[in-house]
Design goal:
The complex is a heterodimer. Chain A has 9 helices and 3 strands. By secondary structure, chain A is mainly alpha-helical. The longest helix of chain A is centred in the first third of the chain and has 24 residues. Chain B is mainly α. Chain B is built from 21 helices and no strands. In chain B, helix 6 packs antiparallel against helix 11 and helix 10 runs antiparallel to helix 21. The longest helix of chain B is centred in the C-terminal third of the chain and has 29 residues. Chain B is globular, with a radius of gyration of 21 Å. Chain B starts with a helix and ends with a helix. Classes of the chains: A mainly alpha, B mainly alpha. At the A-B interface, helix 1, helix 2 and helix 3 of A face helix 8, helix 9, helix 10, helix 15 and helix 21 of B.
Amino acid sequence: MNGVDAASVLYGLEAINANNGWAISVVGITIVFTGLVALSVLISQIHKLVALYDNPGKIKKLFVSRSESVARAGTPKAHLDLTEAQKQVCRQYNLLAQTMDDVISLPKLLRMAELSGLNDPHANMNLLIKSGILCADEQGYFRWDEDIFIRTIS
Amino acid sequence: MDALFLEFFQNTGFYLCDYRNIIMIIVGMIFIYLGIAKDYEPLLLVPIGFGMLVGNIPIFKGLGLGIYENNSVLHYLYFGVTQGIYPPLIFLGIGAMTDFSTLLARPVLMLLGAAAQAGIFITFLGALALGFLPKEAAAIGIIGGADGPTAIFLTAKLAPHLIGPIAVAAYSYMALVPVIQPPIMKLLTTRKERLIHMEEPRQVTKREKMIFPVIVFLLCCFLAPAALPLLGMLCFGNLLKEAVVTERLAVTARTALIDIATILLGITVGASTQGDVFLTHSSVKIFILGALSFGIATASGLLFAKFMNLFLKKKINPLLGAAGVSAVPDSARVVHIVGQREDPTNFLLMHAMAPNVSGVIGSAIAAGVLWSLML
């Protein structure tokens, strides 16, 4: 209203129509919505991209032949049946792994297990590796596989 | 000697005082009271309230004291407001103190932050209908974003003469979030809906948190380049925080820098509310539209959450929609309190932070969009 002749000021629907208000509002809310929807889709995939980056083996798997993948799909993935005590051990090591970086160094995990007073750390870490919960990243480090962990202890 | 006394008296505030200055001084004292005694956004209301006292001391024009006089100290400090310098600095600090984990864990909650931005565009229409020019209407509409720095930034760009009323309206309503939102939340939700418990969010890795600000910045600024000053600083601040190796810079951004910017912004915005400039019919309309805008934004978020529940297997608590307005973290806190009143074991604060921070991103994009549409 600044610097505008009061008599020429429009009000109500007339003002909205004259200033293209409907179009600006629709375009505005559409852009905001589109932006945030695109962003939410994108960020929902970040953890998958990070997992791929951490485990390059998974990228290779994407390129295996279709027949091979079909054949594999028919074969159930082997996983160890653990006792309740072993599951408890897995949960304890999960807590330790959470305090570490995404990439886990076995000597560091071993040292932390010893400091925490966990029994038989060597044997138990071997169990974690055999069960696939701790998987090698082919660069000398290991990664905690959350999916296998949940499946194993459930 | 009498003449000297008379001349001196004529230069005092008692002689020059106008009833509008008195009204604004009372408003300033109410702000200070609300900030200190009621703990409503004290970091904002106390500087703005005291700024109102500073700005409404009746002064002899020409001494170079008033904020609207070119050679005054206040005028130089006000430059940071009129040129939109302080809001990006505040956004840098906000970025350096915000944890986006909950948003990364449940990105779908970002839609609630988008829905709440409807308030901005509906108020824009309302302002046009009340006779404001498009640029003024856009600046008024952004009050619905419930984000003070964004409101000031956009107003400085589009309608600098309205900075005082818009900033005061935005910060007043942000401070009054605990008063404005609960009745709307109760009106639009059933008790059964308010009792919904949210499932535990997944753990988010450090690497995800580091990638997030870069992706947000690139995507949003490619979409709405005018949001660059605000989103750029928000994302930069967040990257400083998450990168760990830049912790020293992050600490400065979230402590000293944001505090300095807030003090300067608060006191100068307050001082810009000189009675003769501030108390106009336009200001009254802006305050009415601001309240409306806040209400619509809250209602939009709530209704959209209910709409989402029609499609989701695991229902979300619709109260979270109210946190889509970006008054961080007050609206998230209000959601938590309202949820706890129904069920003390229902902890919604962490979940409400997701739509709350997405509201910050959403209102910055909306400001960028409005700015570019008004050019």
